[in-house]
Amino acid sequence: RMPLLEQCYNLYDFEAVARQVMKRTAWGYYSSGADDEITMRENHTAFQKIWFRPRILVDVTEVDTSTTMLGTKCSIPFYVTATALGKLGHPEGETVLTKAAGKHDVIQMIPTLASCSFDEIVAAADGKQTQWFQLYVNKDRKITERIVKHAEQAGCKGLFITVDAPQLGRREKDMRAKFSDIGSDVQKSEDPDAIDRSQGAARAISSFIDPGLSWKDIPYFQNLTKMPIVLKGVQRVDDVIRAVDHGVTGVVLSNHGGRQLDTAPTGIELLAEVMAELRQRGIQDKIEVYIDGGVRRASDIVKACCLGAKGVGIGRPFLYAMSAYGEKGVSRAMQLLKDEFVMNMRLIGARTIDELTPDLVDTRGLNVH
Ligand code: FNR
After folding, report:
1. Which atom of ligand 1 is nearest to the CA of 111?
2. What was the pLDDT predicted at 201?
3. Which residue ranges traverse the bilayer (predicted)?
């Protein structure tokens, strides 16, 4: 029997339920990572290499978790990151995430490849909540121009250009699930797309992405929109410096949840390296640095903030909560994170996000160069 929602006490519990109740194809698409899934696993374990250095006897009666990301206020430094194909998990798709995010004053990033239309996801918002837009750049720039302008007019407060996916990674769980379900049709079909579909959901939907995207295109996007531009999927320190030189507002240190290049570095380890370099150059205030990948506990978020992240993105846990329990599930997942976050701040002796400083963490266990 399916556990009651109240029996989910942490984000892993939602994953366990989702695994039981989701369709094989949907589970395959959401849960898969690239190749041997080494990066996907490491994303979470990397956080466990960081230890706290709690400060005692601080009056933590009042704790304020609110912060700003890209200039807008929000209740806590995490956001719902962009994940494609929400309707695989729930008939109302991404709007389920929108509603839960609205209740919790959490920012949502709308994916280019949402199952709901962009307008539906904007309409599901409560009018006050902040939404960002994640862009996969189309080979046909006219299409990209149209959707970016539309996102800006609809009030999106940030443009996240995904830069780690010139080609989609190879996710074998997704491919196998797809193949076993539709394999017989594929063999019969004359449809040229059938080959693509046998490669899994991910590859079937991504053939429009422009592998020619390069640094030369950044000024084009800066001219196209007034939305702050953030590069999502940066994986090297020198690329962060280049991003600063190009005048973008932010970067997300991310390996796409371990779905792209296997054995790519984790966001949290890269963060330590990036912030050290930015501080050394005295340019740490020139760019907002975000990370995503493997965030499952509020302590992970606290650690990222201590190391200098403005915020973190969370992907799969909200998809699992949505697939298992709908909006109430996502809302409970967010509340659990909020409760854990306040507790963690009290226990390390920090009252505000500004008080989350590097001295509160011991990073000697990280593989930092
Ligand atoms: C993603 N991610 C993603 N990123 C992006 O820029 N565009 C997209 O369409 C998608 N789609 C997508 C689908 C699914 C099912 C997953 C799990 C992920 C990557 C996502 O934004 C983020 O980088 C990771 O999900 C973060 O890792 P966790 O939180 O899932 O561990």
Report:
1. 9
2. 65
3. none
How close is the Cα of 193 to the center of ligand 1, in Å?
A: 24
- Whether the full predicted model's pTM is greater than 0.80, yes or no, is yes
Residues with C-beta less than 6 Å from any ligand 1 atom: 29-30, 43, 81-84, 111, 113, 134, 162, 232, 254, 256-257, 259, 292-295, 313-316
Q: CA distances (Å), 169 to each of 111, 255, 270, in order?
A: 17, 11, 21
Identify any residues that bridge with 162 across adjacent strands, giving them in sequence order: 232
Query: Is 150 part of the annotated catalytic residue set?
Result: no
Q: Which atom of ligand 1 is nearest to the CA of 295?
A: 29
Residues of the chain with pLDDT under 70: 178-204, 369
Q: How far apart are CA 262 and CA 35, in angstroms?
A: 6
- From atom 21 of ligand 1, which residue's Cα is the shortest distance away? 82
Residue among 294, 361, 344, 312 at smallest CA distance from 46? 294
Instruction: Output the pLDDT for position 75.
Output: 98
Segments in the chain forming alpha helices (H): 11-21, 24-31, 38-47, 94-104, 118-123, 141-153, 172-188, 193-198, 201-204, 218-224, 237-245, 267-280, 298-306, 316-348
Say whether the ipTM exceeds 0.95: yes
Considering 29, 90, 164, 300, which one is annotated as catalytic?
164
Nearest Cα residue to atom 11 of ligand 1 = 83
Ligand 1 atom closest to Cα of residue 134: 6
Task: Establish whether 325 is a catalytic residue.
Answer: no
Report the C-alpha gap between 162 and 159 in whole angstroms. 9
pLDDT the model gives residue 199: 56
The C-alpha atoms of residue 7 and residue 25 are separated, in whole angstroms, by: 26
Phi/psi for 107 (5° steps) reads -80, 145
Q: Which among 92, 51, 101 has a CA at the least distance from the CA of 313?
A: 101
Give pLDDT tens digits for 135-187.
999 999 999 999 999 999 999 999 999 999 998 888 888 888 765 554 433 33
The pLDDT of residue 198 is 52
